[in-house]
Amino acid sequence: MSKKKKRLRKLLITLGVILLLFLSAWWAAYTKTRSERKKKNAVRDKLEKYYADGDYEEMTNYYYMQGDIKGTKYAKYKRMAELYDEYSAADGYIREAYDKFASGDEVRVDYSWELEQMFRVILICDIYRDEGYPYDEEKGVKDIRNKVTNYLQGVLLLTDSEIGKLSGRYLQAKTNEEIEEVKADIDKLAVESMSRLKQ
What mean pLDDT do residues 40-58 have? Predict the structure, then answer.
């Protein structure tokens, strides 16, 4: 075999090995990416199932269990998890304060601060509404807003008009002074609610 043919043969073998290594690396990267994509899709599908079922507590727990998941396809669940956390905390505060009030606990004289937290949840819901629900979170936001409103009306005896006026003013408040005025009116509403409950 001539030297030229030997060199050509070595070159072809080298090129074949390089091509084989390249294809192996590409296949490994493709398989890993595909596997990660499947996992992310499975996570998103599970989050969407919880969301569609209205099980925001499980959706929130599952979302936070996933660690730091980012991207626009998770924005809806991130936003809903944060909103649900706000709602859950405010709901726990107001129920505890109401239970103390209803049992005649004299240490706790009102639930003004707790009522402010409930109106804060309504404020967040109204901000999302005014943004046009950019992540298709309309159903969940409306569900949580309805839960808050139903509690305020059904348990604390606030009227739809009272809730509507204060939440509208809260949404429109831009300065610290305006926000403090709204909070002062929420405090007055808490006192009014207590007097209704005592009757």
Answer: 93
Find, among 133, 132, 124, 136, the residue nearest to 171 by Cα: 124
- Whole-angstrom distance, CA of residue 3 vs CA of residue 9: 10
- Looking at residue 30, its pLDDT comes to 58
**Residue 104: count of CB within 10 angstroms of its CB:** 6
pLDDT in tens, 134-144: 999 999 999 99
Distance separating alpha carbons of residues 181 and 44, to the nearest angstrom: 42
Average pLDDT of the chain, as a whole number: 87
Task: Evaluate whether 139 touches 50 at the Cβ level (below 8 Å).
Answer: no
Q: Which two tokens stand for residue 111?
A: 């639930």
Rounded Cα–Cα distance for residues 164 and 145 (Å): 12
Query: DSSP letters of 126-159?
Result: HHHHHHT-TTS-HHHHHHHHHHHHHHHHHTT---
What is d(CA 189, CA 199) in angstroms, rounded to the nearest whole number? 16
Residue ranges of alpha helices (H) inside the chain are: 3-53, 56-65, 75-102, 112-131, 138-154, 160-172, 176-198
Check pLDDT > 60 for residue 108.
no
For residues 133 and 68, which has the higher predicted lDDT (pLDDT)?
133
Q: How many CB atoms lie within 10 A of CB 170?
A: 22
